Amino acid sequence: MSPPLRKLGAVLSTMAMISNWMSQTLPSLVGLNTTRITTSDTLTQISPKEGWQVYSSAQDPDGRCICTVVAPEQNLCSRDAKSRQLRQLLEKVQNMSQSIEVLNLRTQRDFQYVLKMETQMKGLKAKFRQIEDDRKTLMTKHFQELKEKMDELLPLIPVLEQYKTDAKLITQFKEEIRNLSTVLTGIQEEIGAYDYEELHQRVVNLETRLRDCMKKLTCGKLMKITGPITVKISGTRFGAWMTDPLASEKNNRVWYMDSYTNNKIVREYKSISDFVSGAESRTYNLPFKWAGTNHVVYNGSLYFNKYQSNIIIKYSFDTGRVLAQRSLEYAGFHNVYPYTWGGFSDIDLMADEIGLWAVYATNQNAGNIVISQLNQDTLEVLKSWSTGYPKRSAGESFMICGTLYVTNSHLTGAKVYYSYSTKTSTYEYTDIPFHNQYFHISMLDYNARDRALYAWNNGHQVLFNVTLFHIIKTEDDT
């Protein structure tokens, strides 16, 4: 084949590949045939899940400061699929536009060559007609050679017509790509994602501001309990499991104490996931049996009620030794003043944002609940508050920010019915329901670090989320 024909064939082949690529790729880029966008070798699906999680509401009753504190989900920007995919889409359109521009320049250059060749061919055809009319004047051999060359070129005329049509199509593609790019840029500006990195930085700055705001929060008031989330099914009907509210963020050890009596074995797990899988990391054999299920781990030590006594034990996990023990004066024990479910639950040890607490009942307070704040090192009672709520009528109780919350039952239909504030020495009746999914709760404790309630629900280890109402501290507060 002659050089002009080879060149034209290469151009037409390139045209065919570009046309095929456009027909297959452009619909997917503009979303006509799928909701996914291909990036390298992976597919990214647009997820409908996005937004913010409400952390708590905050208000100053004097009207000095009102704000709502919210915490974004982790790595919010990395989950912003729509903005990320829009940015990727615009980049692809821009790349395609550049490719079309290059093709257009090459096409226009070749097209000028084709137009020139077409003119020459038409002129050559006219000359052949003239020669045919007077072919007697030419040598037969030379005429035949020219005739054969003309026959080779004649099929190119319809091909050239098609080439001109394809050149027009390229121009149309170029215009459509330009329009699409303009539309996408407008959409991107409309949703505020023109600069994705700038958006990410804005979210990071917002997270910093929220943390600063949260540092100004005073203790919160319980407003709502949601859940439960079932973590594991194990053990007997009664027991306790817990984490340390004062542990560092990297320390997520879990402690597990099955049954309410006749046991001294504490099982330790390095994390919640190890706890779920049963990958035990260590076992502790306590020097005394415990009573009840109302133990607490606080600042690396286990606090529990010694069996058949009103003695509180502080046991160090690090040294494996008893660091302190003290009798809780006048406190009833061994099912004298238990919760409604029994189980030697007379003395309930707990911790919150303020410190370590003991909840129990005495004859001197007619069997009603007494709240005592304890020194975490010596177990000395720092201060006590006497309430008017009968201990035997309580299903369970827990402390949040110095306020005791008491449930009215351990069975189905239980709710937080009563609260007592140690800050104001006042009480109120409440009505905060929660879902007792497995019908029998024998342990319910608040963890200030997780801001969640740990519960043992009929052999199920579960978590409840809490919603707290906060008061904002201002610079004027003393």
UniProtKB/TrEMBL annotation:
Compartments in which it is found: Secreted; Synapse
Entry coiled-coil feature ranges: 79-141, 170-216
Disulfide linkage: 219-401
GO biological process: signal transduction
UniProt KW RNA-binding keyword: no
Domain Olfactomedin-like: 218-470
GO cellular component, one term: synapse
Keyword annotations from UniProtKB, A to Z: Coiled coil, Disulfide bond, Glycoprotein, Secreted, Signal, Synapse
Database matches in InterPro entries: Noelin_dom, Olfac-like_dom, Olfactomedin-like_domain, Quino_amine_DH_bsu
Keyword Iron belongs to the record: no
Designated name of the protein: NOE3 protein
Species, as recorded: Sylvia atricapilla (blackcap)
Gene: Olfm3
